[in-house]
Amino acid sequence: MRTATAVVTALTLTAGAAVAATAAAPAQAAPVTRAAESGIHGLWRTDGYGTVWAVRHGTLQEYQTTSVSCVKGETARRTGPGRYTLDGSVLTVRRAHGRDRATLRTDSSVGHQELRRIDRLPAACTRPAPRGPVASFDVFWQSFEENYPFFAARGVDWHAVRDRYRPKVHADTTREELFALFSEMVAPLEDAHVMVQDGDRRFARPRTGTAVPSPELDARVKELVLRRDLKGAENVTDFAEGRITYADLPGGQGYLRVSGFSGYAGPAAPFSAHLAELDRALATVFTEERTRRLHGLVIDLRINGGGSDALGLRLAGRLTDTGYVAYSKRARNDPADPTGHTRPQPARVTPAHGPRYTGPVAVLTGGSTVSAGETFTQSLIDRPGTTVRVGQHTQGVFSDVLVRRLPNGMAAWLPNEEFLTRSGTTFDGPGIPPHLSEPVFTDEEFEHHRDSTFDRALRVLGRDRWALADGER
Questions:
Q1: In what order do the strands lie in the sheet with 401-405?
Q2: CA contacts within 13 A on the Cβ side of 12
Q3: Closest of 172, 171, 195 to residue 183, by C-alpha
Q4: Strand 297-300, strand 244-248: pairing
Q5: Is the pTM of this model over 0.70?
Q6: Which residues contact 154 (CB under 8 A, 6 or more apart)?
Q7: Where are the beta strands (DSSP E) in 41-88?
Q8: From its phi and psi, is residue 161 left (phi > 0), alpha (psi between -120 and 50) or beta?
Q9: Rounded-to-integer distance, Cα 347 and Cα 245, Å
Q10: For residues 319 and 125, what is the distance between their CA atoms, to the nearest angstrom?
């Protein structure tokens, strides 16, 4: 079931350390009886997500389904009443609206999946499945056909793609040839949440003209920021394995750099440990004294590889005294109709219990602001008070990621959700635009030791009154 809100593992700053993709050893399952699971014991089909769950014998077993296939997926172990642990995250299954309805919630994600009880597994789950190249092609194509919401928005005729590529696949097609063919099929999508995986070999393509986060890019940018932007700053402090940096700027503003919403507590840590590290950082940054004296805060997301949307909402809770809806989330749920979706679930920003900063905020974004970095940016659009975005469009990928196993052991990663604004639109594809456009870490900026986006943000925050120049919004 592995859903994640980071850019695919190959593209994250800390590959393999994303919160929802952690290779943690399963916790020891607590003793369980049929009676302890009686309310949720049985088979459940999700609304959307192409998944059937089996709850039995202390496990939560995933079956990844399409109209032509059923592939056994992840197994989570029971660690409490209705609670199952998988790859560092806790999945909670609860009854709802009678015995035949339930919900599935993952602690590292936002929202929940609706479940409906079924009597038996789909027929494809009970018989041996073909495993050759043609079968793998069919499952690959069908997984996108039934779950991917953005073909029209990205200008790709998926049926034409099938007609072009399926005749090229036969019983003797090699693994290397199939990997190359799948990569060609999805390349035109330019969707950084789409990936073809075969062991350590991965293919993904972001939007043209953008650079995905990498350890090298992050290090280069951080060196520039420390040497130039934070020259003369006080209280420069790293938190959360270096993923978060805070500094008090000479002009009375604060600077908060977040390079990801994951990787805060090491690759084997549960989500609760990442959350605890974030809370520790926020408690240190947002003190009573600092929140009173700051008259502007720069939040730098220009190199942000994503992670957990829940962690982004946690940070947003430090920036408001009033609760509000950050965005609404829905999933594609009609295999035959790409316009069919689940009922939108509002995700709220809840004011933190600790000190909060409610003054002007300048958010720095660019093409390397990805996934949970984007959902956090979206969560500030309707923030009470004033928030201005400076830089370039974000990458344009918001959804959790479905990891679909193929019969030959390869995998396809794809999004199936939309994050809606208050008006019901999404930013998938083009990304969230800035209010004020400035170059972001271009070769020319590096060559001339410039950071135009940072400088523009300070000029805006330094005005006597918070107001954008005419025509800049």
A1: 201-203, 195-198, 411-415, 401-405
A2: 29
A3: 195
A4: unpaired
A5: yes
A6: 188, 189, 190, 191, 429
A7: 42-46, 51-56, 59-66, 69-80, 83-86
A8: alpha
A9: 26
A10: 48
Please name every residue paired with 248 in a beta bridge, in sequence order, or none if there are none.
234, 254
Q: Answer whether 221's CB lies under 8 Å from 441's CB.
A: yes
The CA dihedral of 358, 360, 364, 369, to the nearest 10 degrees, is: 30
Q: Give the whole-angstrom CA distance, residue 291 versus residue 285.
A: 9
Q: In angstroms, how far is the first alpha carbon of the chain from the final one?
A: 41
DSSP 58: T
Question: Could you give the CA distance from residue 439 to residue 365 in angstroms, rounded to a whole number?
Answer: 10
153 Cβ neighbours under 8 A, 6+ residues apart: 428, 429
Among 465, 4, 463, smallest CA distance to 204 is for 4
| DSSP codes of every residue in 334-376 | -TT-TT-BPPPEEEEE---SS----S-EEEEE-TTB-THHHHH
CA distances from 432 to 50, 327, 369, 435 (A): 29, 13, 10, 10
Q: What is the mean pLDDT of the chain?
A: 91
DSSP 215: H
Kind plus residue range of the DSSP H or E element containing 328: strand 324-331
Calculate what percentage of the chain has a pLDDT beyond 70: 90
pLDDT digits (tens, 9 = 90+) for 196-234: 999 999 999 999 999 999 999 999 999 999 999 999 999
The H or E element containing residue 105 is: strand 101-106
Q: Please tell me which residue, 426 or 9, carries the higher pLDDT value.
A: 426
With H, G, I as helix, E, B as strand and everything else as coil, classify residue 176: helix
Give bridge partners of residue 46 from the DSSP assignment: 115
Higher pLDDT, 442 or 268: 442
Rounded CA-CA distance 318/291 in Å is 10
| 3-class SS string, 282-318 | HHHHCCHHHHHHCCCEEEECCCECEECHHHHHHHHCC
The pLDDT of residue 84:
97
Q: What angle do CA 126, 132, 133 make, to 5 degrees?
A: 130
**Which residues sit opposite 304 in a β-bridge?**
369
Distance CA(107)–CA(19), nearest Å, equals 10
Q: How many residues are given for the chain?
A: 473
Q: Rounded to 5 degrees, what angle do the CA atoms 231, 235, 237 make? A: 95
Amino acid at 134: V
d(CA 64, CA 321): 42
Give the residue from 204, 173, 140 showing the smallest Cα distance to 12: 204
Query: Which residues, listed in sequence order, are joined to residue 398 by a DSSP beta bridge?
Result: none
